[in-house]
Design goal:
The structure is a single chain. This protein has seven helices and seven strands; from the N terminus they run αβαβαββαβααβαβ. By secondary structure, it is an alpha/beta fold. The protein has one domain: 3-Layer(aba) Sandwich (Rossmann fold). The protein has a seven-stranded mixed beta sheet with strand order 3-2-1-4-5-7-6, with helices on both faces.
Length: 215
């Protein structure tokens, strides 16, 4: 997979829009796909918690080690058994699950790593975003690109409903599930006319989900 040729800022996103979802009182955090540790490192410093990370690529993973308490470098699937059970108050998967061959199994295992009230928080690209809709429906294209929804490293594609179904099927209770990074374009209004404005999910680039164990 072409992770070496990503843009310079690919591994150090701050993701401020995802900070709002972290529950109060967290003491332990795991960031799956932590990159250089920018996001989890900020939370660690701000909240004074213990922060772990998993990063596929060696170079950003080594940089994350300077910011976080513990970092695994390699495919996240390789380290799931090494993560302690019932340990993390929050597990972040920011634009990660769509890169996995089997995100369903990974979510199912991560559930066991949560404390009693712990949550998994994810952001996942929306294949029904208006720009993707235009390319697939209007332009009749489905071509992989270097970044964005059609990123060539994406293995899975999701909609709002399929994200929710994935969590529920893996034994989660969804606490919050909403669109983020809303477009400023007016095109979604135009595209919604044939659907009687029932496809308003087109406005959102991603969906952010907060879920905890259902049992």
């Amino acid at each position: 997979m072409d992770y070496e040729n990503k843009a310079d800022d690919y591994y150090n996103h701050e993701r401020p829009e995802m900070l709002a979802y972290i529950p109060r009182g967290c003491k332990t955090l795991l960031d799956v796909g932590c990159g250089e540790g920018t996001f989890a490192g900020y939370i660690k410093e701000k909240e004074g918690l213990e922060a772990w990370g998993i990063e596929l690529m060696p170079e950003p993973g080594e940089q994350a080690k300077e910011r976080l308490d513990k970092v695994f470098i390699g495919p996240c699937e390789d380290f799931l058994d090494e993560l302690p059970d019932n340990y993390f108050d929050v597990i972040y998967c920011n634009d990660v699950l769509e890169h996995l061959v089997d995100p369903y199994t990974v979510l199912g295992i991560l559930k066991n790593k949560l404390t009693e009230k712990g949550v998994v928080i994810s952001s996942i690209p929306n294949i029904r975003y208006h720009d993707a809709f235009k390319k697939i429906i209007l332009q009749k294209k489905f071509e992989y690109e270097g970044h964005g929804i059609f990123d060539k490293t994406h293995m899975r594609f999701f909609t709002k409903s399929s994200i929710a179904n994935m969590y529920r099927d893996q034994g989660y209770k969804i606490l919050s599930h909403e669109g983020i990074n809303r477009t400023r374009s007016l095109k979604p209004y135009l595209y919604n006319i044939p659907f009687f404005f029932t496809a308003m999910d087109m406005f959102y680039l991603q969906f952010a989900t907060v879920a905890q164990r259902a049992d």
